[in-house]
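Now for a specimen:

…
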Amino acid sequence: MYRLYRFKDIIRIPPERFGEDLKKVALELLRAEYEGVLDKELGLILTVTDVDINPEGYVIPGDGATYHEAEFTLLAFVPVRHEVVEGVVDNVTKFGLLVNIGPVDGLVHRSQIGDDRFMYDPATGAMVGANTKLKIKKGDMVRAKIVQVSYTKEFRIGLTMRQPYLGKIKSAEEIEK
């Protein structure tokens, strides 16, 4: 799920940037500070979309920069447990599928692909169901449910496809057959 947050902050404009467009400089400085930040409450901050900056700043003695009040919008990705997502299989390994669900990849362990027993086939680079012979390979579209979100040093998302209406999404050609 994507969210927009509106924030207020004080931005330090360094003296070497004084001749430039204030709004453009503020947007660059805010993006450098906030983009890619992972926060448990806000999620993964993707970008700063806009900024409204007060053109009148103030100076702190001993510092040649100006400080301006600014209001800006952050775009963040916040995965929610039990949310159903669609994505493209980015990588297939012997332990499961890495599914691109937007700005991050989620992991579907091979035990969570379906009710069948799925094994990795190194010859085709796909996961193959033992009974159904269903093949899931890199580039396939899948529908999954978020079951775990971890905010450790790395942002990890666990997915499952073991419920009705989840799993590989058939293409138009497959449906016609």
Observations:
- The mean pLDDT is 91.
- The longest helix spans residues 22-34.
- The chain has two domains: 2-77, 84-170.
